[in-house]
Design goal:
- This protein has 2 domains: 227 residues, Enolpyruvate transferase domain (UDP-n-acetylglucosamine1-carboxyvinyl-transferase, Chain, Alpha-beta prism); 204 residues, Enolpyruvate transferase domain (UDP-n-acetylglucosamine1-carboxyvinyl-transferase, Chain), CATH 3.65.10.10.
- Helix content is 27%, strand content 26%.
- The chain contains 12 helices and 26 strands.
- Strands 3, 4, 5, 16 and 17 form a 5-stranded mixed sheet that branches.
- Helix 3 runs parallel beside helix 5 and helix 4 runs parallel beside helix 5.
- The structure holds shikimate-3-phosphate.
- The site of shikimate-3-phosphate has 11 residues, from helix 5.
- Shikimate-3-phosphate binds next to helix 5.
């Protein structure tokens, strides 16, 4: 990523129209590189997200001796080295802003014979890693971390296999679940995880696609017992659907617009990810699902969104893990709704790329919205009767791509415009966001940020 700091200026617009395909799913893109690298044979990926986060995962596996082509229009080819074929990296593995890279790779690295160190940027260095260190240590891994269990993480190599674990996840986290399952590939015996609430299951689906047995019963998921020596992943083809978390910005933009219709093509509709659609529909959104089909083990569909007068709701806590990345833009939808929206049970938002409860509440208040942060959520008094919901203001994105894009969407319903600083992080998940937003009717300007004197 360039060091250039970017400013967005988002101006009001009323009509949103057109047909677009947003970039590939970030979660699936990360996993395609990881499992492709550990497989035997050549894995071909289409629809790969060429964003900084998944590119960092790609670079890390190259640094461990895996031949991976330069992604071109979403096509990547990985020559897998097998479960035991990674080589010691010469330098620390840098994953930038990406929690998924760090947490999932830690599971894989815990099973290696060589030492490795994982580092990230300032935002990632503040995020909790104890949640993966604890189960990995229970499996026999030796991990050194910074203060309070933060990164950098140094993972010691060992000739001994890990111990299988039956792990009860303390929080609903697909990253922790995936970390333990990936470490389980290197453990003798049967590794199981039980989750307190369903979270995204891309790891389980993709492991099966690579020929690894997975048994799921209720909230428990296990790697099928097999001899460690015999265990192997077999290369496959992966078609990455468009990321529903990126589509979410346009679901809200088209819902709060004055007129038009937006079609989002080939969106991933995995039921562990569609909470944003359920929440928006409960608020009165007009979303039609068309051409539903399954591609490479993941459901996809086209979504057609038309403007609607949204109304406030109490968000069902069961939907929280199924929409965990979409709350910044859902808060914008809530501000444009009629009446009060209440979110509870979402304390995980405090440990994302930023503290999304506090950063969103501050930003909304600055723009004149009545938003009250709580320990585990937010209360927003919607102002849906007004066309211009948001006053003028200058928001700091705080190193968080989704905060930047959420306030860019808010610009559609602003009085004058909204300025958002430090939007360079949008590149981590959504390269080309401003162009696509403008293609369907947004008025988003991108500028280098003025340098401080
Ligand atoms: C992800 C899981 C989620 C999500 C993140 C991607 C994944 O994090 O917020 O953006 O790819 O597994 P948690 O599992 O920590 O909630």
């Amino acid at each position: 990523m360039t060091d250039q700091r970017i400013r967005f200026i988002s101006k009001p617009a009323s009509e949103m129209n057109g047909q677009i395909r947003v970039p590939g799913d970030k979660s699936i893109s990360h996993r395609s590189i990881m499992l492709g690298a550990l497989a035997e044979g050549r894995t071909e990926v289409t629809g790969f997200l060429e964003g900084e986060d998944s590119l960092n995962t790609l670079r890390c596996f190259r640094a461990m001796g895996v031949a991976i082509t330069e992604p071109k229009a979403g096509y990547v080819c990985i020559d897998g080295v097998g479960l035991h074929g990674l080589r010691a990296p010469k330098e620390p593995l840098y994953v930038g802003n990406s929690g998924t890279s760090m947490r999932l790779m830690a599971g894989i690295l815990a099973g290696q014979r060589f030492d490795s160190t994982l580092t990230g940027d300032a935002s990632l260095s503040k995020r909790p890693m104890k949640r993966i260190i604890d189960p990995l240590e229970q499996m026999g891994a030796v991990i050194e971390s910074g203060e309070g269990g933060r990164s950098p993480l140094t993972i010691r190599g060992s000739d001994k296999p890990l111990r299988a674990l039956n792990y009860q996840l303390p929080m609903a986290s697909a990253q922790v679940k995936s970390c333990v399952l990936l470490a389980g590939l290197y453990a003798q015996g049967k590794t199981c995880v039980t989750e307190p609430a369903p979270t995204r299951d891309h790891t389980e689906r993709m492991l099966q696609g690579f020929g690894i047995g997975i048994e799921t019963q209720g909230s428990q998921c296990c790697l099928t017992e097999s001899d460690l020596e015999q265990r192997k992943l077999t290369a496959t083809q992966i078609d990455v659907p468009a990321d529903i978390s990126s589509a979410a910005f346009f679901l809200v933009a088209a819902s709060i617009a004055g007129s038009g219709a937006v079609t989002l093509k080939h969106v991933g509709m995995n039921p562990t990810r569609t909470g944003v659609i359920d929440i928006l529909k409960a608020m009165g959104a007009d979303i039609t699902i068309k051409n539903a089909c399954e591609v490479g083990g993941e459901p996809v569909a086209d979504l057609i969104v038309r403007p609607a007068q949204l109304h406030g709701i109490e968000i069902d806590e069961a939907l929280v893990p199924l929409a965990i990345d979409e709350f910044p833009v859902l808060f914008i939808a809530a501000a444009c709704a009629r009446g009060r929206t209440v979110l509870t049970g979402a304390e995980e938002l405090r440990v994302k790329e930023s503290d999304r409860i506090s950063v969103m509440a501050d930003g909304l208040q600055q723009l004149g919205v009545d938003a009250t942060p709580t320990a585990d959520g937010m209360i927003i008094e919607g102002q849906g009767d007004k066309r211009a919901v948001f006053g003028a203001g200058c928001i700091g994105a705080q190193g968080d791509h989704r905060i930047a894009m959420a306030f860019a969407v808010a610009g559609l319903r602003s009085q004058e415009h909204i300025i958002i600083d430090d939007c360079q992080f949008v590149e981590t998940s959504f390269p080309g966001f401003a162009d696509l937003f403008n293609q369907i009717g947004g008025r988003l300007e991108t500028q280098p940020m003025p340098t401080e004197p």
